[in-house]
Design brief:
Elements: E1 2-3, E2 6-12, E3 17-24, E4 27-33, H1 42-55, E5 58-59, E6 65-68
Parallel strand pairs: 1-5, 2-6
Antiparallel strand pairs: 2-3, 3-4
Amino acid sequence: MTQATKATVDWDPNKKQWHVRVQIGEEVIKRPLPKAAQDTNEDSLRSQAVETAKDEGYTVDPSTVAIVR
């Protein structure tokens, strides 16, 4: 698997769900996290971001996942 540069998880107030953005160089993949409530803890959001990246064929270091509330 290819190593992602970084990942960011942020809350979309319009869609009322979390989104994860995985950046690989210039490429950015954005996926929703529909099963996560707005008050989900940061560790859970990080693990979901890592799992989402893995599903797309990328690895992400959990310590590099930024949570934007």
